[in-house]
Protein: NitT/TauT family transport system substrate-binding protein
Organism: Kutzneria buriramensis
Amino acid sequence: MNLRTPVTLVVAAATVLGLAACRDSRTDTASAGGADHVRIMVGGIDKVIYLPAKLADQLGYFKEQGVTVDLATQQAGVSAENSLISGDVQGVVGFYDHTIDLQTKGKCLESVVQLANIPGEVEMVSPAQAGTIKSAADFKGRKLGVTDLGSSTDFLTQYLGQRQGLHAGTDYTEVKAGAGSTFVASLENGQIDAGMTTDPTVAQLVATGKGKVMLDMRTEEGTTAALGGLYPASSLYMSCDYVNAHKPVVQKLANALVKTLQYIGSHSGAEIAAKMPADYAGSDKSLYEKAISDTKSMFNSDGKMPADGAANVLKVLSQFSPNVKGKQDSVRLTETYTTEFVAKATP
């Protein structure tokens, strides 16, 4: 499978900067043709956990709603959120937990479409370490890969360790391993002993024998066992100011994404893969189809935040996040997500 390289990310970042130079994304939503125009950064556009963003575009659902959507990509969610805060884009498809983390810094971001109720992340172990790293209790003294420091994989890795009484920096070392080919190389070359990643990287590692699954959060059962409950993850989040000022545009985005979620639920991995850009599958189409099949159950069908989901995310972050720990009682969860638009979605 031909996983994306950092070159793609540089091009995407340059595209976003060029767009930002032409318009202030926090105020302008109109394209030259008069249609609504939105720029969205995805925390890894070819990751299956964020598949609904590109799939909606491929299916023509954004166009059907009368909105032009420019999708760009960053390798990690923390980089994507920075693009939103700086005003380069108007929305991010990334993990919901960033809205809580940033509220403690005085930033108001809210999930307007909750795409998944679970992370879809997998802790992979190198074959050489599989016999000794069998659970998070074995993290002590290890080098653990995360997408980036401050990313959601960082949050989740720290929580898994915390549940075993282990702490990052003192009991184990977190290493920025990126995603896709950079993660594969880090695991293969021994730069990390284990690490957290998603499909299609998981499918490639298993198929080539370069990695083994230690912990699987692609199912509700696996997520509950690992985290003590659901962990709403992939979402479209935007600044509260933008949402309040552009409700008709946000409604169109919600309509398109909810329709996409319903498409995912009613089609096979092979059918979905056929709608995606050919280069996402690379040279192994069947492996890409399997990656989608293995992960697609993580997506919900209505875009709504699950009951108690946001509270569990706050519970996880409050255990270790320096921004949230000790401040959890002041976090206003109702301001970190809204169901206003998905409740009225008309796919």
About this structure: The chain has a mean pLDDT of 90.
